[in-house]
Amino acid sequence: MSIHLMVVAAYLPEDVVTQSQKLAMMKICDSADDETRLSKPGLRRLRAWVGVGEKRCMTIVTELVAKGLIERVETGKAGRRAVYRVFPLGVPPIPSNDDLDARFKEADAAPKNPRKARTGVTRAAPSKPAMTHEDIDARALAAGEGVKEAGFHGWNPDEGEGRVPPVEPTGLHRWNPLGSTGGTPSFPSSSSVLPFPPTPAAGAAGEPGGCPRHPVPAASCRACGTNPRAARVARERERAETDRQTEQDWLRGWQAELDEARRVMQERPEDVEAARLLARQLARQGREKARYGDPPEKNESCPLHECS
Q1: Is the predicted pLDDT of residue 303 greater than 80, yes or no?
Q2: Is 83 left (phi over 0), alpha (psi -120 to 50) or beta?
Q3: Helix axes 19-30, 54-66, angle to 10 degrees
Q4: How far apart are alpha carbons 56 and 21 in whole angstroms?
Q5: d(C-alpha 80, C-alpha 36), whole Å
Q6: Which of 24, 22, 19, 10 is nearest to 100 (CA)?
Q7: Which of 83, 125, 135, 168 lies 20 to 30 Å from 108 when distance is taken between CA atoms?
Q8: CATH architecture entry for 3-86
Q9: What is the pLDDT of residue 279?
Q10: What residue segments make up the domains of the chain, in order of their start?
Q11: Please, which residues bridge with residue 77 across strands?
Q12: Is the separation of the CB atoms in 57 and 29 below 8 Å?
C-alpha cells in the first residue's frame, strides 16, 4: 500500500483524467509498492472502486496506459493478477495551495463550452445575493419596476370593483315558498319501491325481483349466496374443485402403479432382468428385420436348412 502515490493520483487535474479514471488510478496506486511502484490490484477490487462493469473497467485501464500514467508489466490470466507499474515516466509532485488556486481560477475563467465561447467579451461579476426582503425591494426600486417605495405598504391597496356585488343576488327569493317547512332542504327520495335496488345480475337472469328464495325483497342477498351471480360463482368453484380432485386421483393411481413396479423390482430382480433381456432381444430382431427383411421360410427337404 502506497499512501503517497494514492494522494498524487487524487490530485490529478480534471483535464488529464476523468472521475472514473481517477478512481481506477487511486486503486492501482493503493496496491502499489513504494520502491518498485509495481501494483497488483485485481479486477474484482478495481471494479468495486470504480463502480463499473468488467469491460468498462478494462477500457479505463487501457485509457490510463495510453495516457502514460501506468504501464502493463504482466497481463492477467486465470488465477493470476495483472501487474502494472504506476507513473512510469516519473511521479508528479503534490500540488500546493497556490497551485490549486491557480488551477481553479483558470478553470472558472474558461468557458463551459469552448465551441460556443464569446471571445473578447468581459462578463460582469455576479451581484451580491439578497439577504433580506429590503434588498429585493431596493433592487426593484432601482430597476423601476413600478415600486413607489421600498418596504411593505402600510395600507390596503386601492379597492376597485369587488368580485361579489354589495347587494344580494336577484335570482333567489327572499322568503320561504308556500308549504315549506323552513328546514334544511334535502334530496328527493329514491324512485324504487324496494328498500334497495336489485342487483344488476338479477334482470339478466330473468328475475326482476332479485333473489327467488326471499318472498319479501331483502336489502342484500349476496351474504347468503342466493342471487344468480353468487350461484354462478359457486357452480364454477365446484367445477374447478371437481377437476382438481380428478387430477389428484389420477396422480395417486399413477403413484401407486409406480410404487408397485418398484416393489416388484426389489422383490424379484431376476424377473426384471429376464424381462430386460427379452426386450433387448425383441428390439434386436426388429432392427434386423427392418434392415434385412423377413428370413426365408424353412424347407424340410433342403439340406441347408437342417437347423432352425
Answers
A1: no
A2: beta
A3: 80
A4: 11
A5: 19
A6: 10
A7: 135
A8: Orthogonal Bundle (1.10)
A9: 85
A10: 3-86
A11: 80
A12: no
From CA 78, how far away is CA 228, in angstroms rounded? 71
Q: Residue 83: what are its φ and ψ, rounded to 5°?
A: -115, 130
pLDDT (tens digit, 9 = 90+) per residue, 23-69? 999 999 998 988 888 998 888 889 999 999 999 999 999 999 998 99
Query: For 253, how many CA atoms within 13 A lie in the half-sphere containing its CB?
Result: 6
Residue 26 has what pLDDT? 92
Amino acid at 304: L
Check pLDDT > 60 for residue 79.
yes
Asked if 84 and 38 touch (Cβ cutoff 8 Å), the reply is yes
Distance from C-alpha of 66 to C-alpha of 16, rounded to nearest angstrom: 12
How far are the Cα atoms of 3, 30, 39, 179, 259 from residue 33, in angstroms, in the given order?
Answer: 10, 8, 7, 104, 68
Tell me the three cell numbers of residue 51: 463502480
Q: How many CA atoms lie within 13 A of 18 on its CB side?
A: 8
HEC string of the chain? CCHHHHHHHHCCCCCCCCHHHHHHHHHHHHCECCCCCEECCCHHHHHHHHCCCHHHHHHHHHHHHHCCCEEEEECCECCECCEEEECCCCCCCCCCHHHHHHHHHHHHHCCCCHHHCCCCCCCCCCCCCCCCHHHHHHHHHHHCCCCCCCCCCCCCCCCCCCCCCCCCCCCCCCCCCCCCCCCCCCCCCCCCCCCCCCCHHHHHCCCCCCCCCCCCCCCCCCCCCCCHHHHHHHHHHHHHHHHHHHHHHHHHHHHHHHHHHHHHHHHCHHHHHHHHHHHHHHHHHHHHHHHHCCCCCCCCCCHHHCCC
